[in-house]
Amino acid sequence: MKTAIVVDSGSNIYNETIEKDGLFSVPLQLTYEGNSYKESIEITNEQVNTLMQDGVLIQTSLPSLGEISDLFEQIKKDGYDQIFAVPITSGLSSTLGAMKTAAQLVDIPFDYIDCFTTMHIQLLVALRAHDLFKQGKTNDEVKKNLNEMIDRSETIIIPDNLDHLSKGGRLSPLAAKLGGLLRIKPILHLNRETKGVIEALDKVRTMTRAIDEVIKRMKKAGVDEHYQITFTHVMAEKEAEQTIKKMKETFPHTKIVERDLITTVSAHVGIGAIAFQYIYLG
Fold first, then answer.
1. What pairs with residue 155 in β-bridges?
2. Tens-place pLDDT, residues 123-160
3. DSSP run (H or E) holding 72
4. Which of 24, 82, 110, 254 could form a disulfide with 103 if both were Cys (CB 3.0 to 4.6 A apart)?
5. In contact, 105 and 71? CB cutoff 8 Å
6. What pairs with residue 276 in β-bridges?
7. In the chain, which residue ranges form alpha helices assigned H by DSSP?
8. What span, in angstroms and rounded, lies between the C-alpha atoms of 48 and 64?
9. CB within 8 A of 279, min separation 6: which ones?
10. Rounded Cα–Cα distance for residues 185 and 175 (Å)
11. How many CB atoms lie within 10 A of CB 192?
């Protein structure tokens, strides 16, 4: 069976040098001042960061149904027997629902897995799915392998301040003001346990303390040479340099990569935010 793997721009695929036969993607959308732009195609990370520095409120939305349907129609014309999707988690976006609708409209078999996050974990899960289907694995065999990865993965986000979460309606202005006065750094996370919804994990008084708490959490989770850690940030170069050094000392045998935080997340957490992802690769 010929299977097409479909992801969205939340996976950061448009900013990675990855081209594989049978791997397809659709862009999420960013909206400000009444105009919508395709993430990483019509608007870059640098442009989004500049807008946020200027105080512009940026909203995010799923890919257009028409664009998803057009992609699925082309996939069907290219002779694929089914689509297997690894979209941004349904806890953050309705992209999966739109993909299901598009598959029905196009009349092509459709299956998926929820990675309960986005960013690099989403991409790594999709790449593993691609390789497994190329090996002739069945849908059930693929899902079993992917779930082993997903069950032992987590995304942790530390905003530098609470202002952006307040502007986006995810936090009250009073709570944001009090948090700023107290220099509180919220530690947020999402994984299978949170069903892909961002939840508060802890709150501490400084960014250094927050980073140390995250590293402790990864050690407790058993992160070793069988895992990959991805560190991302939004114009937080100083914290990035110090944090990468700490992680290399703590996890000397673990592959650690650094990326810019994708704009569909950075638009909600703001300048200075940092994020960690760890995922079991076996």
1. 190, 277
2. 999 999 999 999 999 999 999 999 999 999 999 999 98
3. helix 65-77
4. 110
5. no
6. 156, 231
7. 45-53, 65-77, 95-106, 119-134, 139-151, 163-167, 173-181, 207-220, 237-250, 263-269
8. 20
9. 120, 121, 124, 125, 149, 150, 152, 153, 227, 228, 230
10. 12
11. 17
